[in-house]
Design brief:
Low-confidence stretches: none
Shape: elongated
Number of strands: 0
Number of domains: 1
Radius of gyration: 23 Å
Distance between the termini: 33 Å
Number of helices: 3
Length: about 100
């Protein structure tokens, strides 16, 4: 009887440790997915910006093009966290599902 109780206690402790160890990995995965979605959106925004015809009336300086890229990156970060959060959640679910099946 004592052996069964100690075995069950060890199994409960193991389950608790596994659950606690998965939390940081899930948080890391969510952060990686958010960064991925942000990079994807940034590339889409930059491609959209390149498709806009420029008149050439005024020359664009290096600083202006750098600022435009930086602001598009920030727009992508904001969009991935707010407006397109569902895209990140979908990607996370897909990756987590594949990860669980592979384990």
């Amino acid at each position: 009887m004592k052996i069964n109780n100690s075995v069950m206690a060890v199994q409960n402790n193991e389950r608790i440790l596994c659950e606690k160890s998965k939390k940081p990995k899930d948080d890391e995965l969510k952060e990686a997915v958010n960064e991925f979605v942000s990079i994807l959106l940034s590339q889409i925004f930059k491609d959209m910006d390149r498709s806009i015809p420029r008149t050439g009336l005024t020359e664009e300086s290096y600083g202006q093009s750098w600022f435009r890229e930086m602001i598009l990156d920030e727009y992508a970060k904001t969009a991935s966290k707010q407006a397109l959060r569902s895209l990140g959640e979908t990607v996370y679910k897909q990756i987590a599902g594949v990860k669980q099946r592979g384990s």
